[in-house]
């Protein structure tokens, strides 16, 4: 609580005194703290891969480059870490656009089926790498499923959900994507039989940079920003996203998107 005392003098003596103004600044302070934590997180998350890249390059420059096998290994690491930094910076740019409440979602009439197939194509290499059996089940295969939405942003969301289902599955695991149409909305479920999420972590996985196992996520190229962005994008479409999971058994992400946009502020978090 912020208090401000302002002396008050009226012409007639009996009205002399002070005005006390009380301001509740909890919200402002929360915002300042959130910003500070965010900047600290970004710096930390970028410093880790940068330190790795720097030390690998130093070792190469010190002579390790002469050994072909060693240099191949080192360059692989440098490439992987650089890719992770590029993804993180791209994701941070999307978040910053959403934070600035810019109208970043471009609404067009789009066929959700096409978005699903595009996302499935994107994840083909990692699916193959991990020998995952991906089953796509579209309940109304012959109908167009049109909604008002941003096809690029939704591709980013679906790709992220599929990537997570694959990344946090065992080699040779099963992933199911289900797309169905209800009266006024489209529903999507992405289900895996992977490692699952402990119940204590579940409420926090949509937070920026939150990861159940930092080391595992990092090794898979994860940034901890994917679900935070997914939720903001889906909410900006007037929809919502939830996750249910059982540790050791698997995870199911459920989301819905309204077919027609109600008049609501687009781009808000
Ligand atoms: P990341 O880039 O680390 O994958 P996300 O924001 O996409 O970040 O996810 C946050 C965390 O939630 C992940 O680090 C992981 O611990 C957990 N998670 C997300 N999806 C799944 C899943 N399908 N199975 C198990 N854990 C998951």
UniProtKB/TrEMBL annotation:
Subcellular location(s) per record: Membrane
Domain named Histidine kinase: residues: 41-261
UniProt name for this protein: histidine kinase
Organism field: Natranaerobius trueperi
Organism lineage: Bacteria, Bacillati, Bacillota, Clostridia, Natranaerobiales
């Amino acid at each position: 609580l912020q208090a401000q005392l302002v002396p008050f003098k009226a012409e007639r003596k009996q009205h002399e005194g002070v005005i006390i103004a009380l301001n509740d600044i909890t919200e402002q302070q929360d915002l300042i703290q959130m910003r500070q934590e965010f900047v600290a997180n970004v710096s930390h998350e970028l410093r880790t891969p940068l330190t790795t890249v720097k030390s690998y390059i130093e070792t190469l420059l010190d002579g390790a480059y002469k050994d072909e096998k060693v240099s191949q290994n080192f360059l692989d690491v440098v490439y992987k870490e650089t890719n992770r930094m590029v993804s993180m910076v791209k994701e941070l740019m999307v978040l910053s656009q959403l934070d600035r409440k810019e109208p970043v979602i471009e609404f067009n009439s789009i066929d959700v089926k096409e978005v699903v197939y595009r996302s499935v194509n994107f994840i083909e290499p990692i699916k193959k790498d991990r020998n995952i059996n991906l089953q796509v089940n579209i309940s109304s295969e012959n109908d167009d499923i049109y909604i008002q939405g941003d096809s690029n942003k939704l591709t980013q969301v679906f790709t992220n959900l599929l990537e997570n289902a694959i990344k946090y599955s065992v080699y040779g695991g099963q992933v199911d994507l289900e797309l169905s149409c209800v009266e006024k909305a489209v529903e999507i479920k992405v289900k895996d039989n992977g490692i699952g999420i402990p119940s204590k972590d579940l409420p926090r996985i949509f937070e920026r940079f939150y990861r159940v196992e930092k080391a595992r996520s990092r090794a898979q190229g994860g940034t901890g920003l994917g679900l935070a962005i997914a939720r903001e994008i889906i909410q900006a479409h007037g929809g919502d996203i939830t996750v249910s999971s059982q540790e050791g058994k698997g995870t199911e992400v459920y989301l819905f998107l309204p077919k027609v946009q109600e008049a609501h502020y687009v781009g808000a978090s």
